[in-house]
């Protein structure tokens, strides 16, 4: 079971495979990251205006949420096949399909975040003379950010996993290696690509978690807040 | 629109429904995959989630399992299992991959449903002298029931949509109609396959809504209370 032979004996774990096919693996990972990142970024750019529209015109909320939920029930395999006449065999086909899936989670979470902004905060900002744009940018967006970023994390992790289905048109990043490995009964390639896919999802999640912590430092302080409040109320009780 | 018209023609051609590769046979395979998967997943996830919800522990586990579940590429699991010795046992890899996919959301929904039961109601039941088992059966379960069933329905829809991936690993199901259409560059057939899966998902959702109503432990209660 010496390492150079593990390609011949078709082992699941094979160091020689990692060495000899390094470039192929790197290319697949880069494509996987590229497709996922493009899908999530475009998804956020589309979901945010949709969520704003749904909040300002409640009549749109039902149809917007309904449509994005229906999109989610379309099998990914069918989605990629159906977009084929529009895009041909290209990475933009896979990205488009993944954007449509990510909208379900992104619109829902963004809308929930915006709706959870306390009316008092809005009133106070309006009272201080904030216009609608400044209100959105400086009050509503920061307050909705934790829910929005939670949505981005969920969407990113599921998109990393779903990108593999793009293998049906040969633009599936690591999924392409998985499917090729099935056809050629190449165990090391299938296992390595699958494990890399999971690792990629975990790494993306941790990265976004760090971003969330960095962008919303006040949410960390909130766990300590009740204790302070209790102490002040105790003090208030004592003085009274 | 021509693709939709073509799909209609494809679906109304009797020959496409007959035989080994026909719609009826693929539909039966699809229902078999999805049904067994859903049943096994519920048997694994629901008792565990309801118990954890009842004792009020393992919340982090229930939520993290669901997050971790999203990271697992179903296609990867399916292909890996197909190449293991399990692959010789026919459809077993499909079942395992789909169960792994379905358990996390079921677990999380049922757990959250249990935890969202109004604590003051549970306290009141305890105060009335109900035992743990009685609180579970007569208070928590009926109140958590709608949320648990919502989880089961959404899991069913997702399993039906995801079972199409079995076709990529050379297994059966309605996904084969889509992949076959794809390989033949026959867009109407692909659309027809997608429509069949979507209709099946909607039908199953409808049936589960009905089943959920019949099984609802609160059925007739609110009317009687008035």
Automatic annotation (TrEMBL), chain A:
Annotated keywords: Membrane, Transmembrane, Transmembrane helix, Transport
Mode of membrane association: Multi-pass membrane protein
Matches recorded under Pfam families: BPD_transp_1
CDD domains on file: TM_PBP2
Domain ABC transmembrane type-1: 29-208
Annotated transmembrane regions: 29-53, 60-80, 86-107, 143-169, 189-211
Main location: membrane
Compartments it resides in: Cell membrane; Membrane
Family: Belongs to the binding-protein-dependent transport system permease family.
Protein name: ABC transporter permease
TrEMBL record, chain B:
Domain of life (superkingdom): Bacteria
Family according to the record: Belongs to the binding-protein-dependent transport system permease family.
Keywords: Membrane, Transmembrane, Transmembrane helix, Transport
TM segment ranges: 31-53, 65-86, 92-112, 143-170, 190-211
Single GO BP term: transmembrane transport
Pfam families: BPD_transp_1
Organism name: Streptomyces antnestii
Stated name of the protein: ABC transporter permease
Principal location class: membrane
């Amino acid at each position: 079971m010496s390492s150079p032979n593990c390609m011949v004996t078709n082992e699941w774990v094979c160091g020689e495979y990692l060495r000899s096919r390094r470039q192929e693996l790197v290319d697949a990972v880069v494509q996987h990251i590229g497709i996922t990142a493009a899908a999530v970024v475009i998804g956020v750019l589309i979901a945010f205006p949709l969520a704003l529209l749904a909040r300002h015109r409640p009549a749109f909320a039902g149809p917007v949420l309904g449509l994005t939920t229906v999109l989610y029930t379309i099998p990914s395999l069918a989605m990629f096949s159906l977009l084929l006449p529009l895009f041909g065999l290209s990475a933009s086909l896979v990205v488009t399909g993944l954007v449509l899936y990510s909208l379900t989670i992104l619109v829902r979470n963004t809308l929930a975040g915006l709706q959870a902004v306390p009316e008092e905060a809005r009133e106070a900002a309006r009272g201080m003379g904030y216009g609608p744009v400044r209100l959105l940018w400086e009050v509503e967006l920061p307050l909705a950010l934790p829910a929005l970023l939670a949505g981005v994390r969920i969407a990113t992790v599921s998109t990393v996993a779903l990108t593999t289905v793009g293998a049906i048109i040969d633009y599936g990043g690591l999924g392409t290696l998985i499917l090729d490995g099935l056809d050629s009964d190449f165990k090391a390639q299938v296992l390595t690509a699958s494990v890399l896919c999971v690792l990629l999802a975990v790494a993306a999640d941790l990265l976004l978690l760090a971003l969330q912590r960095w962008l919303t430092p006040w949410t960390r302080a909130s766990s300590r807040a009740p204790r302070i409040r209790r102490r002040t109320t105790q003090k208030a009780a004592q003085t009274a | 629109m021509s693709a939709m018209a073509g799909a209609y023609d494809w679906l109304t051609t009797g020959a496409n429904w007959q035989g080994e590769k026909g719609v009826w046979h693929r539909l039966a395979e699809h229902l078999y995959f999805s049904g067994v998967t859903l049943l096994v997943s519920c048997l694994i996830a629901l008792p565990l989630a309801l118990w954890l919800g009842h004792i009020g522990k393992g919340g982090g586990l229930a939520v993290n399992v669901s997050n971790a579940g999203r990271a697992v590429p179903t296609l990867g699991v399916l292909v890996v299992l197909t190449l293991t010795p399990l692959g010789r046992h026919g459809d077993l890899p499909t079942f395992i991959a789909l169960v792994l996919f379905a358990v996390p959301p079921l677990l999380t929904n049922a757990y959250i449903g249990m935890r969202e039961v109004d604590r003051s109601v549970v306290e009141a039941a305890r105060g009335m002298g109900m035992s743990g088992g009685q609180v579970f059966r007569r208070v928590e379960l009926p109140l958590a029931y709608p949320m648990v069933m919502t989880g089961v329905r959404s899991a069913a829809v997702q399993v039906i949509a995801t079972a199409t991936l079995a076709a990529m690993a050379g297994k059966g199901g309605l996904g084969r109609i889509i992949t076959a259409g794809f390989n033949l560059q026959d867009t109407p057939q692909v659309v027809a396959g997608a429509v069949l899966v979507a209709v099946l998902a909607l039908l199953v959702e409808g049936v589960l809504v009905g089943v959920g109503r019949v099984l609802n432990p609160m059925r007739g209660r609110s009317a009687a209370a008035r």
